[in-house]
């Protein structure tokens, strides 16, 4: 349900009439109120009002979502409904941009000229396959049929930025060029106690995108070709001791010199759609290359290099069908992933290593909705997937310690992901639905090898999801309300075992996740709007014994899955005619309960809340301004952590930032 993102189109008496929001989460055009699943949509306008600038920031607007980066921006993992993954290279949630699957190392990216973001919660294996285990995030960029141009700048000591974008008509009613560019600098907010340097965790991030789009008005065929490039330079991978968290201090004399991370992401994609009768035939072809250079320390005097090169090619061909009696989609999928990650030597223990993991995946999928009556729908779906993974690894025994290796391996996996959904339109304002679906995380080989134990593959992890929900519009259209209860049973959990620095993945045990999600938007008056969501639940291991140590973790919480989270935003229009525009005040609170960072529940972050505020000015001629402050109380909190003997170390979330954003649309 679209909560906090509806546009007021008109008012008839006391009845509020909202624009109908159409989304593509089901891989075909559907009104959001007719999608029988847990879906949240947030528009680009709402993202701007909330100060949402990156994928990681989306945890402030989506219920039950945790996205704190776990050390650096290539290790940004997403938890939805308590479904988290300790393996950065094999995540539980997929991220798409304009239908293009993103490799995991590019999840933490900027949101540039975005029309809307869609979140599907729960396993989405039928339509999205592997890694749509906890959900799917769809990012859709703006595409216009008229000339448009905007320029935006953020004046800030903490995070200055500049952004441009728009659409140029190359041939009237036929050919268009969509383009966008963004550059953001972060000035840092962590000090080095050893050297006395301030604000050492700086970053620079640049992005550009261009799409050539053939879309003749009223035509049966359209196509597009898109190219994007992103460059990141970051010094943010800093670990602070627990006693230094509040003061935001790093100690290079203990942990080592400041890290350096460079990420270069290139994406090329081509899409086309052909409409005939009640059918639409579509194709999406994409190639993404993430080239990472990473140098870091793990103790004074140490320095390691771990570059990572990740190439992914994917092809999807699908056929959508719409009629009064039936609607659905069927398709074929293929992807090829090539991952290389050489590691530097660690004297005097072992020499340099190389690791190449190649994965091929093929799938056939389909989903069909039978409109039994005007008020009752039945949806069934199935996906059949075949994965094959190969590894080739070598490490020189440079110091004659017996810690070298040279091995190759291959493994095959197949899986079926069914889905059944029932929905009933109780009345024009209320829709009930129930879903049973299966999701899975593919098996394969560890991408971070450390010993001969990594020659053995791990098996897929699977989950059954049971949910029921209600979507309703009340109070003459002024209140949007939805609620979903869910229960997820996962088996063959993929868990890292072994000592730090020598960990490997094994399948160990089972877990459950049970909870309720609530979303609401209340347009209390013409001037006052409340938008909020909350997620309450519990994700715990029910049968998990570490196969290496024999320690039982039964009853422990799943890492990175807080029991509760809540977000509330209040918007009040102060004036409808302030220097020819509207002036609106926004205030928000974001709260999370305690979060554990490991299966032993020994390292974690206690519950906390952050507060944001903004003052927005907008005129009809396209001029707008936003004065904002994020994390007003400058709350210092950990986003990831681990135990090193008796000491706990962790990475820190961003402190207080403030600025003035100016934007002009032409």
Automatic annotation (TrEMBL):
<keyword id="KW-0813">Transport</keyword>
<keyword id="KW-0410">Iron transport</keyword>
<dbReference type="InterPro" id="IPR036942">
    <property type="entry name" value="Beta-barrel_TonB_sf"/>
</dbReference>
<feature type="domain" description="TonB-dependent receptor plug">
    <location>
        <begin position="34"/>
        <end position="136"/>
    </location>
</feature>
<keyword id="KW-0812">Transmembrane</keyword>
<dbReference type="InterPro" id="IPR039426">
    <property type="entry name" value="TonB-dep_rcpt-like"/>
</dbReference>
<dbReference type="InterPro" id="IPR012910">
    <property type="entry name" value="Plug_dom"/>
</dbReference>
<keyword id="KW-0798">TonB box</keyword>
<dbReference type="Pfam" id="PF00593">
    <property type="entry name" value="TonB_dep_Rec_b-barrel"/>
</dbReference>
<comment type="similarity">
    <text>Belongs to the TonB-dependent receptor family.</text>
</comment>
<keyword id="KW-0998">Cell outer membrane</keyword>
<protein>
    <submittedName>
        <fullName>TonB-dependent receptor</fullName>
    </submittedName>
</protein>
<dbReference type="InterPro" id="IPR000531">
    <property type="entry name" value="Beta-barrel_TonB"/>
</dbReference>
<keyword id="KW-0675">Receptor</keyword>
<keyword id="KW-0406">Ion transport</keyword>
<keyword id="KW-1134">Transmembrane beta strand</keyword>
<feature type="domain" description="TonB-dependent receptor-like beta-barrel">
    <location>
        <begin position="200"/>
        <end position="632"/>
    </location>
</feature>
<keyword id="KW-0408">Iron</keyword>
<keyword id="KW-0472">Membrane</keyword>
<dbReference type="Pfam" id="PF07715">
    <property type="entry name" value="Plug"/>
</dbReference>
């Amino acid at each position: 349900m679209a909560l906090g993102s509806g546009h007021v189109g008109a008012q008839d008496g006391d009845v509020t009439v909202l624009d109908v929001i159409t989304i593509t989460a089901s891989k075909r055009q559907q009104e959001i109120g007719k999608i029988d699943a847990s879906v949240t949509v947030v528009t680009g306008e709402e993202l701007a009002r909330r100060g949402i600038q990156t994928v990681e920031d989306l945890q402030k607007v989506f219920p039950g979502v945790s996205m704190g980066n776990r050390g650096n921006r290539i290790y940004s993992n997403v938890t939805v409904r308590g479904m988290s993954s300790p393996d950065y290279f094999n995540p539980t949630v997929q991220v798409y941009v304009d239908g293009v699957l993103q490799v995991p190392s590019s999840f933490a990216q900027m949101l540039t000229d975005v029309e809307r973001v869609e979140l599907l919660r729960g396993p989405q294996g039928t339509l999205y396959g592997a890694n749509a285990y906890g959900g799917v995030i769809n990012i859709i960029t703006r595409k216009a049929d008229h000339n448009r141009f905007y320029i935006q700048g953020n004046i800030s000591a903490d995070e200055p930025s500049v952004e441009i974008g728009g659409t140029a008509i190359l041939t009237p009613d036929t050919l268009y060029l969509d383009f966008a560019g963004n550059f953001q600098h972060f000035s840092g907010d962590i000090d080095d106690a050893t050297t006395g340097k301030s604000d050492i965790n700086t970053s620079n991030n640049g992005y550009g995108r261009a799409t050539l789009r053939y879309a003749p008005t009223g035509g049966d065929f359209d196509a597009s070709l898109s190219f994007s490039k992103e460059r990141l330079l970051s010094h943010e991978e800093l670990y602070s001791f627990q006693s230094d968290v509040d003061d935001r201090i790093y100690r290079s004399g203990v942990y080592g010199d400041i890290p350096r991370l460079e990420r270069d992401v290139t994406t090329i994609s081509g899409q086309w759609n052909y409409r005939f009768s009640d059918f639409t035939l579509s194709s999406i072809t994409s190639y993404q290359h993430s080239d990472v250079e990473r140098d870091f320390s793990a103790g004074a005097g140490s320095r390691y290099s771990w570059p990572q090169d990740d190439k992914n090619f994917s092809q999807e061909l699908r056929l959508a069908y719409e009629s009064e009696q039936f609607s659905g989609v069927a398709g074929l999928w293929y992807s090829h992933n090539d991952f290389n990650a050489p590691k530097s030597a660690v004297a005097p223990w072992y020499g340099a290593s190389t690791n190449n993991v190649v994965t091929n995946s093929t799938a056939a999928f389909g989903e069909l909705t039978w409109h039994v009556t005007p008020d009752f729908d039945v949806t069934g779906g199935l996906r059949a997937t075949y994965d094959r993974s190969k590894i080739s690894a070598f490490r020189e025994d440079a110091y004659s310690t017996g810690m070298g290796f040279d091995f190759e391996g291959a493994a095959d996996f197949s899986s079926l992901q069914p889905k059944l959904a029932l929905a009933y339109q109780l009345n024009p304002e209320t829709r009930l639905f129930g879903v049973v679906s299966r999701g899975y995380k593919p098996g394969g080989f560890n991408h971070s090898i450390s010993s001969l134990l990594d020659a053995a593959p791990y098996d897929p992890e699977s989950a059954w999801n049971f949910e029921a929900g209600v979507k309703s519009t009340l109070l003459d259209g002024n209140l949007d309300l939805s609620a979903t209860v869910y229960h997820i049973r996962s088996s063959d959990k993929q868990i890292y075992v072994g000592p730090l620095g020598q960990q490997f993945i094994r399948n160990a045990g089972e877990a459950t996740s049970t909870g309720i999600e609530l979303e609401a938007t209340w347009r209390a008056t013409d001037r006052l709007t409340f938008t909020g969501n909350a997620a309450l639940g519990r994700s715990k291991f029910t049968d998990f014994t570490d196969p290496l140590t024999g320690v039982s973790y039964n009853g422990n919480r799943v890492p990175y899955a807080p029991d509760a989270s809540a977000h509330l935003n209040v918007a009040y229009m102060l004036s409808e005619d302030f220097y020819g525009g509207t002036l609106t005040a926004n205030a928000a609170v974001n709260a999370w309960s305690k979060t554990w960072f490991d299966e032993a529940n020994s390292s974690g972050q206690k519950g906390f809340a952050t507060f944001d505020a903004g003052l927005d000015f907008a005129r009809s001629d396209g001029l707008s301004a936003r004065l904002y402050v994020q994390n007003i109380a400058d709350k210092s909190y950990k986003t990831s952590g681990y135990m090193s003997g008796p000491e706990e170390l962790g990475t820190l979330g961003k402190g207080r930032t403030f600025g003035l954003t100016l934007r002009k649309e032409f």
